[in-house]
C-alpha cells in the first residue's frame, strides 16, 4: 500500500557550476510529495501523524529558511568567514556536490529512509512548473555510483 504525504520548506541555493541565472543566489519554496510503502497489518496500516512527527521537525531544523550549498562553492568559504568575523550564524545544508534538485532529492530520500520509512518515490517541486520524480531505483543507482551526483567525480552528500 502507498501512503502519500506532502511537505514544504523554503531554502536558498545556487549552482555555481552553471553559466545562467541559476548561478545567482536565489530561493525556492520546495514542495515534497512522499510516497511511502507500508504494510497493512489490520484495519490501520500507519497513522499520518507518524510521518509528520519525524519529517516536519527535521525539515524545519535542517532545511527551512536555510541555504543549500556545495562545500566546494567559493561562496561557502566567504560565508563561513563572515560567521567567524561577526558571530552571525547561518543555517547551511552542506552538499559535497552541486545543489541541484536531483541531488536534493537524493539527500532527502536518504534522510527519510534513515528515519525508518520506506519510500517508493519522492517528488520534489522546485517551482510551480518544475517537478522531478525520484524513485527507489534512482536512489539505489545513485548509491551504487556516487559519481552520478557530481557529474563524474566520486563524492557524496553530507550535512
TrEMBL record:
GO terms for molecular function: 6-carboxytetrahydropterin synthase activity; metal ion binding. It catalyses: 7,8-dihydroneopterin 3'-triphosphate + H2O = 6-carboxy-5,6,7,8-tetrahydropterin + triphosphate + acetaldehyde + 2 H(+). It comes from the Bacteria. Its EC number is 4.1.2.50. Pfam families: PTPS (PF01242). InterPro entries: 6-PTP_synth/QueD, 6-PTP_synth/QueD_sf. The keyword Glycosyltransferase does not apply. SUPFAM superfamilies: Tetrahydrobiopterin biosynthesis enzymes-like. Its cofactor is Zn(2+). Gene3D superfamilies: 6-pyruvoyl tetrahydropterin synthase/QueD. Pathway: Purine metabolism; 7-cyano-7-deazaguanine biosynthesis. Keywords: Lyase, Metal-binding, Zinc. Belongs to the PTPS family. QueD subfamily. This is 6-carboxy-5,6,7,8-tetrahydropterin synthase. It comes from Botrimarina mediterranea. The lineage of its organism: Bacteria, Pseudomonadati, Planctomycetota, Planctomycetia, Pirellulales.
